[in-house]
Amino acid sequence: MTSRRHRPARPGRLLLGLIALAVTANACAIQPESAPNDLSEERTGVFGDPPSGDEAAGTNRIYLLAPATADDPQRLRSVLRDVPSSPRTLIESLFAGPNSEERDEQLDTAIPSGVELLGTRTAGQVVTVDVNDAFGDLTPDALRLAVAQIVATASESEGIEAVQLRIDGTTRVWPLGSGELTDGALTVYDYPGLIESTQPAFPAIPSPAA
């Protein structure tokens, strides 16, 4: 029995087959919508903005970090907050970080995102601030700035002159502005040059006429 040879497909039929396959695939593809649709409640927040701090309003202050410049290192800058003036509420507002407008102005914070305020206790002019152990990954410079932020912010509360910072209720050593370590109470005077002055620049006193 002689076998039949398979003839190659004609070019015209092959072309028609490819066109039909392309049309079918295109019909099954997801087509673009002519107008935008609102996200459903289940899908909102997937691409949300980063957490934002409190509104810059009121008369009380917390301390964030101003951007460094070629001439000046990073320093603390006070910003307004409409919160009660107790050490606890001021520290909680500090831990919330900069708001979106402040981030646009390149204000930042050295406070770790995982920090939690466990409690505050005031005795005379000293407030004890107890936090969880979230500072271990900070560089020495970042830790110095973070501690200065806490001390300066808590000291904005009326009558508070010093801050005792503890980890899970345990006394630890903390860096001063000079880099030296201490386990004592900290004041804003331990961080000279790290806090921007809020005083306006006064004109120079004119020299007496010759």
Describe what this molecule looks like in 3D:
With 210 residues, this protein is an alpha+beta fold. The chain has a domain at 60-190. It is built from 4 helices and 8 strands; from the N terminus they run αββααββαββββ. The strands form 3 sheets. The protein has a 4-stranded mixed β-sheet, with helices on one face. The chain has a two-stranded antiparallel ribbon with strand order 1-2. It has a two-stranded antiparallel sheet with strand order 7-8. α2 crosses α4. The radius of gyration is 31 Å and the shape is globular.
User: What's the assembly state of these chains?
Assistant: single chain
Shape: globular
Helix content estimate: 10-25%
- Helix and strand succession? HEEHHEEHEEEE
Which runs of at least 5 residues are low in confidence (pLDDT < 50)? 25-49, 199-204
Structural class: alpha+beta
Summary of the model, kept short:
This protein has helices spanning 11-28, 87-96, 100-104, 140-154, and strands at 60-65, 76-81, 117-123, 126-131, 162-167, 170-171, 174-175, 181-182. It is of the alpha+beta class and 210 residues long.
